[in-house]
Amino acid sequence: MAAMMEKPRDVVSGVVVMAIGAGFLLNGLELERGSSFRMGPGYFPTVLSVLMIGLGMLITILAIRKPATDSGFGGLPWKGLALIIGATVLFGFTLRGLGLAPVLAITVLATAWASRYATLRASVPLALGLAAFCAFLFIKLLGLPLPLTGPWLTASYWSPPETTSSVTVPVEEAATSSDATRAVATR
Amino acid sequence: MELLGDLGLGFATALSPYNLLYCFIGVLLGTAVGVLPGLGPVATIAMLLPITFGLPPVSALIMLAGIYYGAQYGGSTTAILINLPGESSSVVTAIDGYQMAKQGRAGPALATAALGSFFAGTVATFLLVLAAPPLAEVALKFGPAEYFSLMVLGLVASVALASGSLLKAFTMIVLGLLLGLVGSDVETGTQRFTFDMPELADGLNFVALSMGVFGLGEILRNLEHEHSRSVMVKHVSGLMLSKADFKRIIGPVLRGTGLGSVLGILPGGGAMLASFAAYTMEKKISPNRAQFGKGAIEGVAAPESANNAGAQTSFIPMLTLGIPSNPVMALMIGAMIIQGITPGPNVVTDEPELFWGMIVSMWIGNLMLVLLNLPLIGLWVRMLTIPYHLLFPAIIAFCCIGAFSVNNSVFDVFIMAVFGVVGYTLIKLDFEPAPLLLGFVLGPMLEENLRRAMLLSRGSPMVFITHPLSLGLLLVAAALLLIVVLPSVRSKREEAFSE
Amino acid sequence: MRRLTLIAAALALFSGTAAAQSDYPTRPITVIVPFTAGGPTDTVARLVAEPMTRALGQQVIIENVGGAGGTLGARRVATADPDGYTLLLHHIGQATSASLYRKLSYSPAKDFAGIGLITDVPMTIISRADFPATSIKELIETIKTKKQDITLANAGVGAVSHLCGMLLQSALGVQVTTVPYKGTGPAMTDILGSQVDILCDQTTNTTGHIGTGKVKAFAVTTKERLKTLPNLPTMDESGVKGFEVVAWHGLYAPKGTPKPIVDKLAAALQGALKDEKVIARLADLGAEPVSQEAATPAALDKYLADEIAKWKPVIESAGVYAD
C-alpha cells in the first residue's frame, strides 16, 4: 500500500504533465482569451493548461516527498516500439501507392517481428492470409474506396513517359484492381 | 386501443419475412464488422450505409438499426476480449470486462453483456412505444445551461473510473479536455492547436485516438511482458453465468437500464454519458466495490445495460423530432432523406408503418442478437487461446484499416501511430487512459455549452443556478465530488501518518 | 513529371490508343463528396450518380472525404489527375471557401473545370414557436429594434445557415447575437426548445417542422415563392431587395480535364437531371433540378465566379474566418 506513489516514475510523470501543460499554454498564447462573460477561443485552453501545469507540480511534489520505493520503469521494448509504430506509419504512407493487399502483408510481417516468438513459418502464412481476408472483406464486401494493388505495382508507373506506348501492361493486375473498385457500387 | 393497433401494425411490418431477413442481415453484418478491432458502430454504419440504399425505406431503416446495435454489441465484445473500445460507451466496458477476460472469465463477461443488453433493450423499447412523444418534449427543456451542468456531472463521475491515483485520474481528464480542444473553435472558427493542418480542423478523431492509446499502447505493454510463449488467457473457467454471478448482475442491470433510458433521451450526448454514469454509480453503491477495476462483473453489467438502453432511447428524439442525438443518428437521418422520407415530427403520422415497424424490429433485432451471440461466446473465448504473437499483428492490421475507414484518409492512421506512443508512455508512467478518453469526448461539449449558455444569458453566469434542472445537476455533481474525494483524502492522510 | 507519367500510364493502361478521350470512360469514375455519407450533399450526389452511371456505362462511385468544411475533399480533387476519373460534387461552400479560408492550399476559382450546376436547395427563415413576431415585416422590425437581444442560430462557421445569417445582418444593417452550433441538428433542437430565437436553414431541415407548427416560418430566401411552401413570401417582396441565398450544388472536374470529357460528363449530368426519379426525390427535399442550360460547364463557371464575388464582401465585413 505504501508503494502507491513510486518516486522516480512519478517525478517523471509530474514533469511530463507540466511539459504538456506548458506546451498547450505556449501554443495557445495567440488565441484570443476574451473575458469570463464573453469567452474567446483561448479562454478554455488557457484555464486547462494552467490547471495541467498545476497538476504536474502537485504530482512532482507529492512524489518527491514520498520515500523512494521502486524504480518501476521496466525496460523499453525498443524493437517492438520501432516496428509497430514504424509499420503503422509505413501503412499510412504506402496504402494508396501499393494498394491494400500488399501493404497489409508488409504491415503484418513487420509487426509480427516485434514478438520474440515470431517465426517465418508462422508469420508469412499469417500475413498472406490476413491480406487476402481483409482485401476480400473490405474491398469486395464493404466497398472501401481502395485499390487491391496500387499504381506503384504497375510497370508503366515506373517507366519513363516516352516509352509508355511500348510498355507491356500488367493486364491482370489492372483488371483486378478496377474490378475491386467497381464493387463500390452505389445502388 | 390505438396503441395496440399501432403495435399490431409494427409487428405485422417487422415480422414480414422480407423485413425479418433484413433485420437479421443487419444484425449479423453489424456484429461481424463491429467485432473486428478498430471498427466501432460509426465506422461500421458509414461503411455499410450504401448497401441499404437500394432497399425499400422500411427495410433499409430496419437493417440500418440492426447494423447499429449489432455493431455496438460487436464493439463491446472487442472491448472485453482485447481491451479495444471502438466508441466512447465501450471504454467503460473495457475496464472490468478486459480484466475478467484476463482472468479467464471472458465467457461470463460476454454473457452478461448479452443478457444485460437484451433486458435493457426490451425495457427501453417499451418506453419508446409508450411515451416517445412526451419524452421528446421533456428533452427539449434541456438547454445549453442544463447540458453544461450535465457535462460537469459527467466529468466528476469519470474520475471514479480510475482505480489508481485520483490525482492522476484527474490529470488524465484534463489532458483529455485539452486534446478535445484541437480543431476549429465552434463559435469563431479559429483554429486551435492544428499546426496549420486542415486535417485537424474537425478535431482529433475518437477512433484513431482510442485505437492508438488503447490498442497500440496495450500491445506494446504486452510485448514488454512477453516472458513466455503465452496465450493471453491461460485457463478459461466456464462460459456461462453461475448462479452467484446472476444474482450479482440483477441490481446493476436494473439500475443501468433505468439510468440509460433516461439519459439516452437527451440529444446532446446523454447516451454517451449513460454507460459511465452507470459504472460510477455501481462503483459507489455495490457491495463488491473493492473489486471494481479488477474484474467486477457488475462493472460490465451496469454500463452494458445502460449503453444499450441509451442506444434505444436515443431513437426518440430522432424519430419524433428529426434531431440526431449522435453521429449514428445523423447517418440514419441521412438514410431517411435518401429514401425520400423527411425526418421530423411527421414521421409518426405520415409513415406509421415505418415508425412502428422500426420500433418493433429493434426489439426483434435485440432478441436475434442474444440468440446469435450466446452460442458464439464459446468461439470468441477460444479466440483468446490463439498465441498472442499471432493475434496482435492481426489487431494492428485491423486498427490501421479502421482508422483509415473513418474518413477514407490515411491521416487518421498517422494520428493513431502518434497516440500509440502517447498511450504507451501513459502506461509507463502509470496513468490510466479511460478518463482521458471521456475527457476528450465531453470536453468539447462542455466548452460549447458553457459558451453558448453565456451567450444566451447575455453574459450572466447565474443561468446555471436559476435554471432548476441545471442547479439540481450541479448539486449532484458537488455531492459526488465530495463522496469521491473525501475517502481518498482521508486515506491519504492516514497513509502519511502511518509512514 | 510524375503527373505526366501517371497520365501516360493511364492512357497506356486503359485505352492503349491515342484516341483515349473518345473511349472515355473505360473505368469507374469517382465523385468525391467533401462531406460525410448521409448528409444533404451526399444525398444529392447519390441521386445523380445512378442515372449518370447508366448514361456513361461505367459505375459512378461516391467517395466521402469529409473535413474542414469541405476543403479537404475539394483539395483532393484540385490536385487529382485531370483525366475525368476524379470529380468533385460540392455545394455553395466551393464559392465561400475562397473567402472563409485565408490559408487555402488550392484555388476554388482556378483549380477546377465546372461540369454543371445540379440543384438549388432553398432556405427558409424560421423562429421559435413562441417568438412574438407574426410576419416577416414584424420580424424585420423586431430585429432592427432589439438588435443584440435577438439570438440567431447557425450550424457552424461556413454552413449555409451561417452564410444566410451573415447576409441577413448585412442586408438589414444590424448586428444580432449569433449562436453557432455543430450542425443543423443541435441548432434545430434549440429552436424547438425555444432556447434561441431565429434560424435560417434549408427546406430539407425545416419543412417538416413548419408543417406541424413547432416553429414559425416567415419567408423563403429564393427569388420566387416555393411550390411546397406557397404561403411564405420571398425576402425580396418583403422589402429586402435582392436578398437571395440558395444552397446550390455543382459538379467539377480538375482544371485541365480535356474538353470532350467535360462535355460528355455534362451531357450525362443533363440527362440525370431529366430523370423522373431524380426530380421526384429532389422535390421531397424541397428542391428542383436546375434548367438544362444551367447544367453546363459555362453556366457553372460563371455562377461560381459570381458567387465568389457576392460572398467576398459579406464575409470580409463580418470578419469571420474559418481558419
Report on the structure:
Chain B: This is DUF112 domain-containing protein. The complex is a heterotrimer of chains A (187), B (499) and C (323). Chain A is an all-alpha fold. Chain A has helices spanning 7-27, 43-65, 78-98, 100-112, 120-141, 155-158, 171-182. Chain A contains seven helices and no strands. The longest helix of chain A is centred in the N-terminal third of the chain and has 23 residues, at 43-65. Chain B has 21 helices and two strands. Chain B is mainly alpha-helical and 499 residues long. Chain C is of the alpha/beta class. Chain C has two domains: 2-121 and 247-318, D-Maltodextrin-Binding Protein, domain 2 (3-Layer(aba) Sandwich); 123-220, D-Maltodextrin-Binding Protein, domain 2 (3-Layer(aba) Sandwich), CATH 3.40.190. In chain C, strands 1, 2, 3, 4, 5, 6, 7, 8, 9 and 10 form a ten-stranded mixed beta sheet that branches. The two termini of chain C are 32 Å apart. At the A-B interface, α1, α2, α3, α4 and α5 of A face α3, α8, α9, α17 and α18 of B.
Number of strands of chain C: 10
User: Sheet bearing the most strands of chain B, described?
Assistant: 2 strands, antiparallel
Helix content of chain B: over 70%
Report how far apart the termini of chain C are: 32 Å
Number of helices of chain C: 12
Shape of chain B: globular
Largest sheet of chain C: 10 strands, mixed
The CATH architecture of the largest domain in chain C can be named as: 3-Layer(aba) Sandwich
Within CATH, the superfamily of the largest domain in chain C carries the name: Bordetella uptake gene, domain 1
> Can you write the helix and strand succession of chain B as a string?
HHHHHHHHEEHHHHHHHHHHHHH
**What is the CATH domain class of the largest domain in chain C?**
Alpha Beta
- String of helices and strands of chain C: HHEHEHEHEHEHEHEHEEHHEH
The structure class of chain C reads alpha/beta
Computed structural class of chain B: mainly alpha
In terms of quaternary structure, what is this?
heterotrimer
Keyphrases for this structure?
heterotrimer, A: 187 residues, mainly alpha, 2 domains, 7 helices, flat, disordered N terminus, C: 323 residues, alpha/beta, D-Maltodextrin-Binding Protein, domain 2, 10-stranded mixed sheet, 12 helices, 43% helix, DUF1468 domain-containing protein (chain A), transmembrane helix (chain A), transmembrane (chain A), membrane (chain A), DUF1468 (chain A)
